[in-house]
Amino acid sequence: MTREVYLQRLRRALAGKVSGEELERTVRYYAACLDEAGPEGEEALMAEWGEPEELAERLRAAAGHRRPGRWARAGIAAGLGAVLVLSAVLGLRHLGGSGVRRVETASEDSVAGAFTLEDPFSAVDIEVDVGNVTLIQSGTDYACDLSWSGEDYTLEARVEDGTLVVQGNRSGGIHLTAEDISAWIEITVPEGTDLTGLEAYTGLGDVALTGGENGLSTGHLDVTADMGDVTLSGLRAEETVLTLDMGELSADRCALGRWTGSNAMGGMSFSGVTAEETALTLDMGELTAVDCAWGDTDVDSAGGNVTLTRLEAGTLDCMLDLGGLELTEVTAGPVDLEVAMGGVTAEDCTLSEGTVTCDGGDVDLAGALTGTWNAENSMGSVRVSTSAPRESWGWDLSSDLGGVWVDGRTQSTQDHAEGGPNFLTARTDLGEVELNFTNS
């Protein structure tokens, strides 16, 4: 069965059983899964899903759906496609305890409610299938404001052993769309206070966490969003784990300690983020970072451009399957840059030794380059410009189908020279090899 036939049958099986908007979003999502699997993997993926009609039936029956885990590039778990919000939740629960203001609806059949909890807390643990989460640091009081509307759905909050626990509750009823469910969690932490831990999970909804004037320390920070954006600002954490399946991840003015970030379908953007160690994984989306200091850094991108500007790093390892890598005013070393299909550009960078591998695109490296370098390109040119003195360099340059140039002078198809402590080995199968000394 071809992917086109599979998606057509899935569309027919869901037609009339979900809203038109949800139908289109579902089909687009499964099409994206097949795109990610590629021609060599889509047949196995469709077999794992089962017949389109069976998949549609499982989606409709998945009232108890829980987060299936990150979309792995090599396996693409079939359950992730069910990130449709198939929510079913419990009616209003009576809450007791001091510090709670309860607003109840007029009848047992009502489907909306709200309350505020004002007890102090030192940690936060949120787990909801549907809900937009907002946490801000402001004022002098603790607060947790919840509001919701929708049949069979309610929210609950309580403080247990100093931890604010927020949960979404569900019971019978199947929701193939979230159009009839809305939920908001708004948490306030006083200025000048810190948290020992902050964990948040939402199946559908955005997460926005904002520190106060002097920033909010969260201890361990762990945020997971199956379908929604995650925005961080003014936070400090000892260790950070950020996991998205579909949405945009952004952070500014944050110190994230040792941190990992992953996004199956969506981009990442960072400004003024510092860290001790950094590991970022993107399956389908672009990464941009400006004015950051990340320590040892590992970036793995399956599909999308990576743009790093004014970044300070220790080691810098970047692996891209499809997309361009652009470094501007980056300080790092050693570096390992590998791009399967796309170009590599480094401009005004301070890089101490490295390896660059490119299979389809040009390699352009410029700046204060020192140490031992190895640049290889299967299909494209290699151009290196360094501000280090010419006498401090040796080189071994060759091109199978192209020319070799040193300081603007042609050297046929290869050239070798001994020099000082710096050495460049550059080879290309199809393209030019150029080495220039900007201070010579």
TrEMBL record:
Pfam families, A to Z: DUF4097, HAAS
Sections of the chain in a coiled coil: none
Domain of life assignment: Bacteria
Residue spans crossing the bilayer: 74-92
Record has Membrane as a keyword: yes
Keyword rRNA processing appears in the UniProt entry: no
Domain DUF4097, first and last residues per copy: 124-289
Entries under Gene3D superfamilies matching the protein: 2.160.20.120
Entry keyword set: Membrane, Transmembrane, Transmembrane helix
Protein name: DUF4097 family beta strand repeat protein
Native organism: Candidatus Flavonifractor intestinipullorum
